[in-house]
Design brief:
It contains 17 helices and 20 strands. The strands form 5 sheets. Strands 1, 2, 6, 7, 8, 9 and 16 form a 7-stranded mixed β-sheet that branches. It starts with a strand and ends with a helix. The relative contact order is 0.17.
Length: 538
């Protein structure tokens, strides 16, 4: 199959790129599951942008830089913030039903979240991601130049040095598309494309507890790394402080807007005499409105210190009508589980939430590999630094998505050489698939225990040792057996886990989301951690 552009991933980044390109290019969107099964659809809080005269670009930039622990790229931050309003206006033009407020300047309700100095979060109640996804999906489905491939899993990129290694020995490789497996038939197809865009999201599934959907297995980061692209700041994994703690509620996130609207963190009954007391003021003067890393570490500290399984998030002091209007999704889901948030607190725990690092890109989404772009959580533009500021991620998707599309459309159309079919002539069906399930479980457990919210060098070295053994085992499996969805994801997760651990071992300080007991101080100069693949070092 041949397209002008192949986009891997169907979240806000992928759909934004596709819609901006589709007037002049043929576009393929490859989605591991249905379009809605990505992290964008799950986003509750909203999108941060300067939309009120009482706010300013400077304030939004400063809030981002402070949250980012001194590691944000200021030029990237300024570019994305300054293009925020036009990104929101584009979404409004597409028909996204943001919550209205006729008294507001733009006519939409703005809320505030932790780390923000102003109300600047435009939202659609507490299900912004779903509203945005649903709207853009309708546009994508209706466009004749966009072809959707749902339930298709990307296998690997096709690069010129793999096609003609002798010719490419000293030249710059180029990306010409990728191999994609149809999950229903098991057949691997060749997708030829002059431009390939990775919009595959993050890598939350590398951890045992995560707010991410099952699709978040770091596929784009792993594929780009194997193709020779640098990655940056992979040690900065954001743990969302408030994930619902309940045996029947998998990965249900409780938006930061709950704390932004007055929600309080308290100790649960299991804390004995201290039950019901607030604890955030003992950790940070900003209390519940401190940035996510501070709140997550504080909750982790209280849980471990007191031997708790969870803490409480209480907003029951607010009027019931207010809560039901502003947080209908959370209210309904909690009620299904027997928790009435208008009368009682919500049990919560931290969980892996956002990958702040990723494939190194510029502000057009260009990677080190010509022909390959990356947009959204899978990329590292420098916006998020050592800790992402709440609701900046969806903004980045739209702003960089548009810039990526403009860069592609500015180029003259070229030719893609003949690409060979996927070769399965020397492999067989797997003999014992239990190996995949066992290794998947082991990986996520030791990453949670050794590479979690608080780290030590010994824990990281243990993880590094286990990863080396796992990688060897999985590579052997990949070489000898037909590829399947679980194997492809596990292969990518092990690759990304190694990048996280190796990045963490290189950072000999504590900064933002990376906290090391062995190096608790923050160095005077903030520098990104950049890893270069072996094939680029030659």
């Amino acid at each position: 199959m041949k397209f002008d552009v192949a986009i891997v991933g169907s979240g806000l980044a992928g759909l934004s790129v596709a819609l901006h390109l589709a007037e002049t290019r043929t576009v393929a969107i490859v989605s591991k599951r249905a379009l809605k099964d990505g992290a964008s659809n799950w986003a509750q809080g909203g999108i941060a942008a300067v939309l009120d005269s009482g706010d300013s670009h400077r304030q939004h930039i400063d809030d981002t830089l402070i949250a980012g622990g001194g590691l944000c790229d200021e030029a990237a931050t300024r570019y994305i913030v300054e293009h925020g309003r036009e990104a929101i206006e584009w979404l409004i033009e597409q028909g996204v039903p943001f919550t209205r407020d006729e008294s507001a300047e733009l006519g939409f309700h703005l809320t505030r979240e932790g780390g923000h100095s102003q109300r600047r979060i435009i939202h659609a109640a507490d299900a912004t991601g779903n509203a945005v996804q649903t709207t853009l999906e309708e546009k994508v489905h209706a466009h004749p130049n966009i072809t959707l491939f749902e339930h298709h899993c990307a296998v690997d990129l096709i690069t010129s040095d793999k096609l003609h290694p002798a010719k490419q020995a000293n030249g710059q490789p180029k990306c010409y598309g990728l191999y994609v497996q149809d999950e229903q038939t098991g057949q691997v197809h060749t997708f030829a494309a002059e431009h390939t865009v990775m919009c595959t999201g993050g890598a939350g599934k590398v951890y045992l507890y995560t707010t991410n959907p099952d699709t978040a297995s770091g596929d784009g980061i792993a594929m780009a790394w194997r193709a020779g692209c640098r990655v940056s700041n992979m040690e900065f994994i954001q743990f969302h402080p408030t994930c619902l703690y309940h045996p029947y509620a998998k990965s249900f996130l409780i938006t930061e807007a709950i704390r932004g609207e007055g929600g309080l963190l308290k100790l649960p009954p299991e804390a004995g005499a201290a039950a019901g007391t607030r604890f955030m003021l003992a950790h940070d003067e900003r209390a519940e409105l401190a940035p996510r890393d501070v709140v997550a570490r504080a909750i982790d500290f209280e849980i471990k210190k007191r031997g708790l399984d969870y803490v409480h998030l209480d907003i029951s002091h607010k009027p019931a009508e207010f809560l039901i209007e502003h947080f209908p999704t959370i209210y309904a889901r909690c009620m299904e589980l027997g928790i009435d948030i208008t009368r009682e607190p919500i049990p919560i725990v931290p969980a892996a939430h956002y990958t702040c690092g990723g494939i190194v890109t510029d502000l057009h989404g260009r990677t080190d590999l010509p022909g390959l772009y990356a947009v959204g959580e899978t990329a590292c533009t420098g916006l998020h630094g050592a800790n992402r500021l709440a609701s900046n991620s969806l903004l980045e998707c739209v702003v960089i998505g548009r810039a990526c599309a403009l860069d592609i459309t500015a180029k003259e159309k070229g030719e893609v050489p003949y690409l060979p079919d996927w070769d399965e002539s020397r492999v067989s069906d797997a003999d014992e698939e239990v190996v995949i399930a066992h290794n998947w479980d082991e990986l996520r457990r030791f990453m949670w225990n050794y590479v979690g919210i608080v780290r030590t060098t010994k824990r990281l070295e243990r993880a590094q040792h286990r990863l080396a053994l796992l990688k060897e085992e999985i590579d052997e499996y990949y070489q000898n057996f037909r590829v399947k969805h679980d194997l492809l994801e596990l292969r990518n997760l092990v690759e990304v886990a190694s990048l996280i651990v190796n990045s963490a071992l290189l950072r000999r300080e504590s900064r933002g989301l990376h906290f090391s007991r062995d190096y608790p101080e923050t160095l005077a100069k903030a520098l990104p951690t950049i890893l270069t693949p072996p094939r680029r070092k030659k």
